[in-house]
Batch of 2 targets.
Target 1
Amino acid sequence: MRFLVSNDDGVQSPGLVALAEALAELGEVTVVAPDSERSAFSSALTLDRPLRPVQQPNGFWAVNGTPADCVHLALNGFLDFEPDIVVSGINAGANLGDDTLYSGTVAAALEARFLGKTGIAVSLAGAHGKGYGIEAYRPAAQMVSRLIRSWPRLNLPARTILNVNVPDLPLEAIRGFQVSRLGHRGRARDVLALDDPRGRKVYWIGIAGNPADAGEGTDFHAVADACVSVTPLLTDLTRHDALEDVSSWLDEV
Ligand code: MN
């Protein structure tokens, strides 16, 4: 199996290294990742300057772009082969519920939607301090290995990825895998207003809202239950069950 690996925490992040090392036991790994942290870049593409891949001493490719740039570039001419699967992560921190809209980790996997069996986005739910070393990511990397070993048996519809969140626990404390739907967060905290040194107002985006829908069956619930949450995501944002209402509304517009 040939893996393309990327992330949004940057080419030097320990989660990326742990993931690449685990996958190297299962196949051929190529890493193409942002040269610095690009968390919360979602599917942004860089269109105002060229992208320059620079190979690192460990063989990883660092790109002066976003997670989506990295996978887009890799799949559309930079690599001279087509990977079987794109694996993104392991992200420092959860990507649950509404987080998936902003996540560069998820976006890197989504960018592979034109491949046959697209990709997996992997996040470590709890690595908030981002000060964790590579050992913190080993249990999650092991759980990804287990998923990948069973990958051929998975029937995934086109344009679908798996969003995987691993609880931040020792391997023996993780209770297994649980399929889930996305939960939802409530409103984010207020922005933090400060004065800059010249007396002008500046603002920090506040932290994400608390879970508002974290009930049974959600990704929030699975992780809280010490399970690896696995949510199939699709790229079709159409609200199919609203088509009829919008259609009859348009008839009168
Ligand atoms: Mn990140």
Target 2
Amino acid sequence: MPIRLFDSLTREVRELRRPDPSDPKDVFSFYNCGPTVYAPAHIGNFRTFVVNDVLRRLLELEYGPDKVKHVRNLTDVDDRTIGQTQKEKRPLAEITQKWTDKFHADCDALNCLRPHVEPTATGHIREQVDMIECLMEKGNAYRAADGSVYFKISSFPGYGALSRIKERELKVTNTVADGDHKDSVSDFALWKAYKPEEDGDVKWPGPRGASEGRPGWHIECSAMSKKHLGDTIDLHTGGVDLLFPHHENEIAQSQCCNGTTFARHWYHSEHLLVEGTTMSKSKGNYYTLGDLVEKGYSPMAVRYALLMGHPRKQLNFMLDSLRAAESALEKLRGYAEDLCKLRKLNFEKTFGSAELPSMPAERRPLLNDFLGRIYDDLNTPGALGALFTHLEDGWQWIGEHADDPESWESNQDAFQHSIDELRLVLFALGLKLDAQVATKLEIPPAITTLAEKRWAAKQAKDFATADALRKELAAAGWSMLDSKTDYKLEPLKK
Ligand code: AMP
Ligand code: ZN
């Protein structure tokens, strides 16, 4: 069954190109733009990384784990990272290392597989300079008066194919971007000449003929993907905000320098929103994973919640969805435990392994439905739906045969099939059931009593009492989040 995925370039759902089985060296090359490590990644960023992690898992499942090469970079020098060093008056490497470590810890907690290579921009200055020199030699780039180097957009007729941006819009978008040293407002920086007041001690020797300085953001990914995956990659991904100008510029740089197609397939996932607007570091309207763990939610619930929406649709983040995710995970765990009991297997041993389970020879209903949906443009909500339909059917069978141990014996093969299928599905989604689904909060009994009273008052529409009790709870350091049928207590942030 081929994996089909929307291609942002052709704007259609297309089959992913699979590695050539006749060539043992042929692997599927997958480049995913990584984080900018100057601040904590928020769960919007992690929506993109979790979606990409599911993609990576599907590729491994379909082609084999040794047939996929996944590269995800770390942007550890750009305007934002340098801005942060100026703000904090600390060395660039110290800041980027701190946020890289935090990013890794969060990725591990969210059960994201580490990429096979995680190159840093500062570790690839030579490769970027080489590429800029190549572009200058070929007439696609020029040195500006201040010693910076710009890409000449008019030299690449294919510019705009990905974003379908018109020349007029391009001028408006780029007018104020890079100062006034360039020939055309549409051109973008490949190399930025050193400015002591802005850059501190961040500088490297530049391309031939240019000043010392630092690379532009876009060239980083072109150079790192070339180094680790070659001139043409099979799949290039990122969040939707990267489509323009970042990926448009990557295409221009790479294709002009390498003389060949840069990426065979482009995929962009949509943003996570908070109250209708994009969650972003610059807006400050974000949750980190740490914020949610502090509120008592488990990283697995966060991962699950991020998969509840279709990756190509915006998803509004609500704490309610974390509660739904927790109860879904609890159900899954209960079902997996029941299957293990019937099959007389140890649950921890059976479901605790992170290894890729082998694809069962016979695909039975769960796997067929699940893969049918998730291979169809990464329809994660549809795939979760298929999983829960199967779970309900399985539970119905278990309920109907609860008093019939003979039927358990005659169905051992079927239980084993269900276990194998379920393990595979959980691997594909990156969901672990061995972790505690929700970090249990220690709620003092007096707080629970107040909360119960307030809930009862609210149900009785005695809003004055309910409000007074809410205030009492807040004074004691607790907030109550109400849904239609229930409430949840959370410690107030200090
Ligand atoms: P950054 O660290 O800003 O370079 O972003 C890392 C990744 O997160 C990129 O692929 C962005 O497209 C993606 N991203 C940024 N904001 C959001 C958001 N609100 N929802 C989903 N993905 C996002
Ligand atoms: Zn990139």
